[in-house]
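Recap quiz, item 2
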Amino acid sequence: MIRSANRVSSFFSQWMAEVVRQPWLMASLVAGPFLVLLAFGQGVKLGVPKPRTLLVVPAQDSGARLADPVPEDMKRHLDIVGETANLDEATQRLREGDVDLVAVLPPDPLQQVRKGEHATVRIYTNEIDPVLKSYAATYLNDQIGEINRRAVREGIAEAQTSLTEVDAGLVEARAALEAARAAQGDTARSRAAAARLRTAADRLAIPAAATGATVVLPGLAQEGDTSTSLQASAEALRVAAARLDAGNGSLSAADLDAAERSLTNLEDILKQARTIPPEVLAGPFDLDVRNIARFEPNYISFYAPAVVALLVQHLAVTLGALSMARIRLLGIMELLQTAPARPGEVVTGNFISYGFLSAVAAALLTGLLVFALGVPMLGSWLILGGTLLLLILASLGLGFVISMLSTSEQQAAQLAMLVLIASVFFSGFVVSLNTIVWPVRAISFMLPATYAIRTLQDVMLRGLLREPLDVAVLGLASIALFLLTIRLFRREYRPR
Amino acid sequence: MTSAPPAPAETDPTGPRRPAAVAETPAVVMREVGKSFGDHTVIESLNLAVPAGRITGLIGPSGCGKTTTIRLLLGVLAPTAGTIDVLGADPARFTSRHRERIGYTPQKFFLYPTLTVQENARFVAGLFGLGWRHRRRRVREVLQFLELWPARNRLARDISGGMQRRLELGCALLHEPELLVIDEPTAGLDPVLRAKVWEHLRVLCDQGATVLVTTQYIDEAVYCDTVAILDRGRIVAEGSPEQLRRRAVGGEVLRVEAHGVTRDALRALWALPAVQALEQENATTLRLTVDDAAAATPSVTGALAGNGVAVQTVRPSVPTFDEVFMKIVGRS
């Protein structure tokens, strides 16, 4: 037992002596990833593309341009670099890379709307990046929506201005009703009042523009929309006038009260329609996103756990993959075969040696990220450390297996690099696992980084372990790969 | 000479070690051993017995199967025919305890170039299960024995080839093995260093170790107690250096310098019973093969003088091992 421990520890001593002699090795292992992440967080500004956009305006200035001058809201996502009337010239500049987008404005948008058609803004792009192209479609859609909202907002403001005509009609109607109430029994005054009532009714019925305001907000009035209320009020006044003309020159109190209630209702509706800002009417529904996560997301914090997982996996896989290649290259395999060290002892010694180095690198890197870059650490340090340890063991096992199956150092290095590339694409580092379809997703679940990234992000950024199964899988993978490594190493030991 | 010795009794590898020098059974016995890699046969019907407590040299040209033979008896390779017994065990079934009794130095440099002399030695000592204190003590002893202690803190890649070879030898000695197997210990070394290495091996042998050495330097056979000449995968001769020399030339050689050698004088020499062969190298030099050089010298001198020949010198001539080797291999 003691001899066995001596044999296992000899690998650790040997490895430590080599590492101590190379202080830059540890420095580069830790400082390198830290500086890469720092540069990424500080230097990459995702989510705010401002493509250089050239506007193609109609050849003849018809006065019906969509934007003149170019409004501020059109510059929200676009960097308007100029205008031209020549589409060929614009697309040529697009091909040559002078501009990123060409936006062709419709020649007469109002005319098309009147015809019941969309006024289409055509966008030309020369994008070869599918992600950027998809992203561009999203923000351009948002841009067109903004233009639409502006058009509606301006229409509503115009309609609200026209409500002053209705106000005048209301004043006239109230005065006519007052006159009708006062002319009880006096035929001449009743007829005069009836005439005034008809005039008021006509004035209320005229401002059709005002009804447009309610089109955008169905149900604005509690008892029907503004248009219906205007017509109802006008009709009530006309009925009152007809009774005055036809009857004995007087209206019943009930008729007068009904007409006044109608006017009061109309006044309330108009007041409401006037006081609601046009931008609210143009875009009645707003978005209010509330994040219940325990930290405000930013790029460094979000990517930091994934970077740690990816780098630790790559370090361990590479060390493991090159270990046996190195042993073969230096001729140490023959020494091991003839020494009393058993395959299990050799494998354990190498696991401890390389595992210790990887663990130190992972601890230093994580510490730097948390304490120097301020990456949140909301969960348990114990779970974090345990996950990293299991990730290291599983990755070392993967590396050792690669090493055993490789026939040269170059092949081992290539396979280790292949694991890294696969991890970048399939581990959830770049794209979410949900976007990867089966059976390709099986690749994701063969990579230790996949489980570690999910766990580290949850533990560090959410403060809880949502998928304990991930840790269990890492643990099982570590054991399985350790045993497989011993089995393969025993095969190497066997007399040929 | 190459007949297989009787199989030794199984010994307990975990039991107390005894000095190999006093062991009665050979340390290594190979019987009718063959080894092929696919269609290529490297070793064929090889019989070899390595006496305990002696230096045995396995000598042969490059590619004759020396390293393969060594790997077979270390259990790195499995024989395709025959049986092997090393310290009483089959190498294919070696346990850790068996391996602790064997020290091995491969032909190729096998240590970590980026570790110091001392660190490499400690690593190997650890591999053989030596505890921390024991390790430190043995490393110091061995490095001092091999005159490497002053260089203990130098990186292995920075020391000379001779020092590297001695370091490898030292690594095989750290655990005090009963059987020391060294593949080409002097390859690439200058004559002074080669002599020094053999000197160290002799000391180890005197301390009780059994040493099996391969070399392609034929003249180094003289440093061995027993020599086995390997040619094309077979042992073609085996014995002490002196026995091999006698076998190669058919006896001992007398070299005669004389003036006026006549045909009658040559006939007189031929007529002597002790003379096995006669060769006239030039007008004044004769080379005679005799059973016993010392006993034959007076009769040779008398035969020449009796025929009027003026004898200048008569002295035994020792053929070089290159000559011995060429004769034996040529004959085989």
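The mean pLDDT of chain B is 85.
Chain B touches chain A at residues 74-78, 91-92, 96-100, 102, 104, 106, 108-116, 119, 122-132, 135 (CB under 8 Å).
End of item.
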